Amino acid sequence: MQTVWKGAVSFGLVNVPVKMFSATHDNDIPMKMLHKEFNVPIQYHRTCPKCEENVSWNEIVKGYEYEPGHFVTFEKKELEKLASETSREIRILDFVDLSEIDPIYYQKTYYLAPEESGEHAYNLLVEALLDTKKIGIANVSIRSKSSLAAIRIVDGVLSMSTMYYAEEIRPKEQIPNLPKQTKVDERELEMARMLIDQLAASFEPEKYEDEYRERLMDAIEDKVEGKEVKYAPEEKKTNVIDLMDALKASLKQSKDATGAKQGESGKSEIKAASKPAAKRTSKPKAKSSTRSSTSKSAKATSASKTAAKPRRRKTGS
Predict the structure, then answer these.
(1) CB within 8 Å of 33: residues ≥ 6 apart
(2) Helix or strand holding residue 252 (H, E)
(3) Which letter, b or e, does each residue of 11-46 get, where b requires 16 or more Cβ atoms within 10 Å of its Cβ?
(4) How far, in whole angstroms, is CA 293 from its chain's centroid?
(5) Which of 1, 243, 239, 225 is nearest to 110 (CA)?
(6) Pairing of strands 89-96, 5-11
(7) Residuewise pLDDT in 10s, the chain (317 residues)
(8) The model's pTM
(9) In whole angstroms, what is the distance from residue 310 CA to residue 168 CA?
(10) E strands within 164-213?
(11) Are 150 and 101 in contact (CB under 8 A)?
(12) CA 115 to CA 5: how far, in whole Å?
């Protein structure tokens, strides 16, 4: 894992030297832009529209357009000097409750690992945050970009989530076509609550999958093997005008799905309890008798295990 940043977490007069690592990664399937005729990747060039020449990186500066067509420019070193005062410090300003922060403020999360000289202070901060159930709100600058940050514990590891400033959050007044608040029908509200209760569950991130990515990978494999890519037919959605009918249909669908899952879960538990670990191609028929002794039952079970052949599990690519 590559180090993104080195510096220190500070609160009061305490400094905790840390290294920063990205806690997440982009799992998108990379695609290149190709010329359709030749299947060759397209190249991009940095071209000046005035002289029509390609521009090298050492000839490029950053600029701010204060009027149309008028810029003030900054060299890379100038921007580094402006950021240098806080670029190596995550300065905690306040400690707050996590529940007070709306998720709209969060950007990207990083793990913080201690430098060798800062292990004691690192462990102290971790334990203090766990004991108080607080998170730190800090200022940080990474790659000349200043942002707020939430310092909290994730699975026993000190982490930092960059955040937007309040002025970066667009006010709701800018959202067009928001519906006016009207009195909700009590029957519809009760049905909506029932539907939410039916779909309520504990958050288990492992059970959510990127379905588009799976379909795309299957399509890529089919194309590599020269197979025709087959697409699932689009579902025809009917325009349900009556909201109550839509709620009732959703509730029924949710109950049916819940019942099916519970049935499958119950069957799998029964099978798991009755079957050995290895899968069998056939089940030996045995006559059950309430009068049979425990020793006879054990012998029958042992014999059925010996007779059954495990089925070789097919592995997918």
Answers:
(1) 41, 42
(2) helix 243-274
(3) beeeebbbbbbebeeeeeeeeeeeeeeeeeeeeeee
(4) 55
(5) 1
(6) parallel
(7) 888 888 889 888 888 999 989 888 878 888 889 998 888 999 888 899 888 889 988 889 999 999 999 999 998 888 877 766 556 789 999 999 999 999 999 999 999 999 988 899 999 999 999 999 999 999 988 877 788 999 999 999 999 999 999 999 999 888 888 888 778 888 888 888 888 888 888 888 888 888 888 888 888 888 888 887 766 666 665 554 577 787 778 878 877 777 766 666 665 555 555 554 444 444 444 444 344 444 444 444 444 444 444 444 443 43
(8) 0.64
(9) 61
(10) none
(11) yes
(12) 12
Task: Measure the CA–CA gap between 150 and 107, rounded to whole angstroms.
Answer: 10
Distance, in Å, from the CA atom of 160 to the CA atom of 158, rounded to the nearest integer, reads 7
| Token pair in block for residue 194 | 């029932």
Cross-strand bridge partners of residue 47: 54
Domains of the chain plus CATH, in order, are 5-25+42-167 (2.40.290.10)
